[in-house]
Amino acid sequence: MMKQFALCLLMLLAVATGFAQQTDSTQPALSDPNAWSVIVLPDPQNYVKYKRNHPLLDIMMNWIDENRERLHIKMVLCTGDLVEHNDITNPDGKKMDQTGLQQWETIAAAFGKIDGRIPYIAAAGNHDYNIFSYTHAPKHTNYPQFFTPEKNTLNKKMLREYTNNPDNTPSLENSCLEFTSPQGKPFLFMTVEFAPRDTILQWAKKVVTQPKYKNHTVVLLTHAYLNYKNEQMKTAKYDLEDANYGAAIWEKLVKPAGNIQLVVSGHIGEKDNARKHVGFRTDKNDAGRNVQQMTFNAQAMGGGHYGNGGDGWLRIMEFMPDGKTVHVKTFSPFFAMSPGTKHLARRRESFDEFSFELN
User: What SUPFAM superfamilies does this protein map onto (predicted)?
Assistant: First the structure.
């Protein structure tokens, strides 16, 4: 009798343990088995500039790969500032301890973990160009050497358009990938360079308004667009000619295009203040459709610009089978690793966990 009781108790404990694991709210899960996800990777500059922070970026990229099937991850969007300094050769060890070349090699290797497994678009941010001193300087970047169509076979297969960067070099800094959702809805994921030139906005508008893309849902990725007050940026501290920030990008490209329904950006942040790393707003375009605009970053979380790089935060956008609803969650694989910190792995404030609709 006692043996049977002990056996039943063990079985109940096993079921309870299994149920607890399945319902553990630490790890994000799809709310619908037919939904699919896009991961937003915030500015990684502070992960790559210190060698000590490289493992945190590895944790994030490994988590994305490990959850590729469980979360039906179909795309990764990186908001830019892939490096802290494009071409520094003698870092001082305080502001950074990695050369520009080492930083580019590190970020390329990080994305290498999902090459051939998940398509991705990496925006180019201000730190990816040689305008680090905020002076009037040519916008040179090493981006095309490390992010090429051949780097990720899935990207190459989905690549539809790209054009020249400020160096007049063909580059994925301005490019778009075509994707069809599991429900058959066509998407175009597009990125434009930091503070895009007028010629780039004209190119992007021409691309998205082609008849073959008129029924596509266009997702635009760019680096500097919204501030934490949910305002479209009008100016920045860079003395650059022919530069466009959020308000100008809206007026010249997003508003008139008609089919750009979601804009994603990064760039902003204040030490250990989650609210000042994010922004969101909705506006109607010239076609009368709502355009959702979202900024997500984490670069100064985890101790500011000299800290751990961003506490491992990333954002999950779950696209529902109805073709219009998107659920947003903010999650840190870094905190989720340990039983002692996993309770910190989800941010549930209204600006970090919410839903919106695409037309």
Answer: Metallo-dependent phosphatases (SSF56300)
